[in-house]
């Protein structure tokens, strides 16, 4: 396989497929349909400042958050362009309360897809980077009800990744064989390989967290963040970087190392919870992060080991370089 910078994504996927004897081309077909969706979303995101597309639709999504028009557009683009492909048996989107069934007139395929169609959408009006996150699992044998197939632990993912609509549009993904990064060249309309086998640094100098929640964190998390920003162990204090767009905050963490965290908070003292969703956000990014040599944990449990019990389950998340995620676990366990 050529890993030369500039290789087209379609060739890269075809070469990857050749490495799996018995591959039917279904996953390659699904990825290629996803890539087409991302190109359409990218085009609209780039146009957003030019046309009257910004603003609230006036309805709220099932998480109770304001839904921007581009969220709806991205969600509909994915559903419309993936339902008929014959590669999927079911889908779930962060924007839909219920699973998305494949209409009866189309063939059912062997994969399950979960996605966050436009992560970070509260940043659209400020022109900050936003993205699409996806996770692919196999529909297990003997599961008659495809809804059950959605609730699988993240370690069973066969592919996960994201598209980042920033100063350029990127795709970063893994099928369990390294993490690879592609950049959309708008002049040819193709994603070109920008970096094969991306590795996250063993440690970094940035921490990325919404520190406005400090007073609602458990003491172990407070002590962890205090530790990062103090000049402990003969090192400089960590610097903070926080966009508020998970996919962009994670991408920076992947490139430079350090940690992204969205810990559980006690805003509702009876029900401490994280904010980010297991199936659409934490699990796919954990898959990418681990395959790049990093770690992903709730602070107590490996993200990829969590058996989901509901579609829109939220989890605490510590994601990034091994050293900083290990420290988080130790502070939470009271060992540091
Ligand atoms: P969403 O845009 O899909 O609702 O995602 C939630 C976003 C994440 O992108 C980001 O990490 C987080 O919410 C930021 O939350 P907060 O504003 O509480 O810091
Ligand atoms: Mg999101």
User: What is the CATH architecture assignment of the largest domain?
Assistant: 2-Layer Sandwich
Number of domains: 2
Low-confidence stretches: none
The helix/strand class is alpha+beta
List the helices and strands and how they pair.
Layout: H1 9-18, H2 26-47, E1 56-60, E2 66-68, H3 69-82, E3 88-93, E4 100-101, E5 111-119, E6 130-138, H4 146-150, E7 157-165, E8 169-174, E9 179-185, E10 190-195, E11 206-208, H5 219-228, E12 239-240, H6 246-256, E13 259-262, E14 276-277, H7 278-291, E15 295-297, E16 314-315, E17 317-320, H8 322-332
Parallel strand pairs: 3-5, 11-12, 11-13
Antiparallel strand pairs: 1-2, 3-4, 5-6, 6-7, 7-8, 8-9, 9-10, 13-17, 14-16, 15-17
The structure holds 2,5-anhydro-1,6-di-O-phosphono-D-mannitol (AHM) and magnesium ion.
């Amino acid at each position: 396989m050529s890993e030369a910078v500039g290789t087209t994504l379609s060739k890269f996927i075809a070469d990857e497929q050749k490495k799996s004897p018995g591959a039917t081309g279904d996953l390659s077909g699904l990825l290629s349909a996803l890539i087409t969706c991302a190109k359409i979303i990218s085009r609209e995101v780039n146009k957003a400042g030019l046309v009257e597309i910004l603003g609230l639709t006036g309805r709220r999504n099932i998480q109770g958050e304001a839904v921007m028009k581009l969220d709806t557009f991205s969600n509909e683009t994915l559903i419309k362009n993936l339902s008929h492909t014959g590669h999927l048996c079911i889908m779930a989107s962060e924007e839909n309360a219920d699973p998305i069934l494949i209409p009866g007139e189309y063939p059912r395929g062997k994969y399950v897809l979960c996605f966050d169609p436009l992560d970070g959408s509260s940043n659209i009006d400020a022109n900050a980077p936003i993205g699409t996150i996806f996770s692919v699992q196999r529909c297990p044998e003997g599961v008659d009800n495809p809804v059950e197939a959605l609730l699988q632990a993240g370690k069973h993912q066969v592919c996960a990744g994201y598209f980042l609509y920033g100063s350029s549009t990127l795709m970063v993904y893994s099928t369990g064989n390294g993490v690879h990064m592609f950049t959309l060249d708008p002049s040819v309309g193709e994603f070109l390989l920008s970096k094969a086998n991306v590795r996250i640094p063993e440690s970094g100098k940035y921490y990325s967290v919404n520190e406005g929640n400090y007073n609602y964190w458990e003491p172990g998390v407070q002590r962890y963040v205090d530790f990062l920003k103090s000049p402990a162990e003969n090192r400089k204090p960590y610097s903070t970087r926080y966009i508020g767009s998970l996919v962009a905050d994670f991408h920076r963490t992947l490139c430079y190392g350090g940690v992204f965290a969205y810990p559980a908070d006690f805003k509702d003292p009876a029900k401490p919870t994280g904010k980010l969703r297991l199936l659409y956000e934490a699990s796919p990014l954990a898959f990418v992060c681990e395959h790049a040599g990093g770690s992903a944990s709730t602070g107590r449990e490996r993200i990829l080991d969590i058996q989901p019990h509901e579609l829109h389950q939220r989890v605490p998340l510590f994601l990034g370089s091994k050293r900083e995620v290990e420290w988080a676990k130790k502070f939470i366990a009271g060992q540091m």
